[in-house]
Amino acid sequence: MLLERGWKGIDLKKLRFPGERGLCFLGEMLRKNGESMSIPLWFRKQPEWWSFLREANKRKRPVDFFEEVLAGWPDWKRLVDGILKIDPSKDFLETFRTWKDDREEGMNAKWLWNGWLADRVFTLMMGVKGAGKSYVALKLLGMMMCGEEMPDGQMASKDLMGKKILWIDNERSQAYNTERAMKLGFPLDWFVYPTEELRVLQFDKDEDREIVEEAAERRGIGLVVIDSFGGSHGFPENHSDVGKVSAWMSDLAQNVGKAVWAFHHFRKPGRDNFKVGEFTMDDVRGHGSIIRTARMMLAVDIPDIENKESRRLRFLGGNISKGSEPIGFTIDGTGVHFCDAPNVRREETQKDRAVDFLKGLLGKSALPQKEISAMAEGLGISSSTLKRARIALGIVCRLMNKAWYWSLPCTKYGEGGEKNDE
């Protein structure tokens, strides 16, 4: 019986006796007898309980399974008595998890790199194909594992020093990543796989999720990388069920107490897979439920189509950070190099020309409107465009000496002018 579905049993000597909230959960699980339940964090943090309750959740009659497995436990009778003593009429709110519990168990955001990557948080990083998501992530993780200064001048937390990265490669790019790590000078044994054999793990399958959960719980693991999100499930990318995979990744971060960093793609914008300008969350590839459970979202983009070698890492959204200034980087044959972040190349419009014209012309003093219009016409700026620019700048119009004068809002007029706000 115990070996059913490959379950290997537990070491009863390592079982810790649960508190009142834990007893309430066990009582509720036995009462429902067969209905799958979400396992509380306390049990998830105890490897023996975690293994036992996951198996119990699969059984049609967990009552029988409890007695079969735990009858030999010295605290079995005490456990049964504790469950039976729970008053069924007790207000169930008292057994709910509270914000105080989160605080006591250290659930508040703990930054590995302030403003960018946090423990216990599912972070999703998006980018177009070829933008360098995996490469720049590898570089940043190596810097954190070395305790170096990060590209924005902040010092990373030392929590990843001496730890390993659980790297789940569903893109079959092991050879590329190994070569990149060697170029960057990082020891190859810093990065480990969840299984002995190299295979794609699908997180819409229970057995593959359990493999990663068990590997991520190991003490030597500091962070989990999933490359990529799109390759980690068998659902159609626009199907709402992909949200279940995203939710599982978020739960994984909370339950194992470690950061989970997944890479994903933006929609293909067209030729060469590049897009001029900034990506938004509306550009994320696949169903909208993918981003709902990610508490941090980052983007790697190439904002200047004329300079494809200059890339940018920036904050896209999230609920635990207000965002950080973008970080620029380039990739060449020797690795990743950080630099000033490139900006979006903006094509100048007729209105932009008119705005620049008025700023330069009226920077020091007011000028007659007729003179300004004549000069604008000579530059090919129409009267309607000039008017839009005037409104945009908040140009002040004032009648002086029987003529209308324009000036920037901060410019001082002579005495006796009559203002026209139209």
Task: Write up what this structure looks like.
The protein has 422 residues and is α/β, with parallel strands linked by helices. It is built from 13 helices and 15 strands. It has helices at 20-32, 41-44, 47-58, 62-70, 76-85, 99-104, 133-146, 174-184, 206-216, 242-256, 350-361, 369-378, 383-393, and strands at residues 110-113, 117-119, 122-127, 164-169, 191-192, 221-227, 259-265, 296-301, 310-318, 327-332, 335-339, 367-368, 396-400, 403-407, 418-420. The protein has a nine-stranded mixed beta sheet with strand order 5-4-6-7-3-8-9-10-11. A four-stranded antiparallel beta sheet has the order 12-14-13-15. Helix 1 crosses helix 5 (76-85) and helix 7 packs across helix 8. The longest helix is centred in the middle third of the chain and has 15 residues, at 242-256. The protein is elongated. The model is unreliable at 1-6, 90-94 and 413-418 (pLDDT under 50).
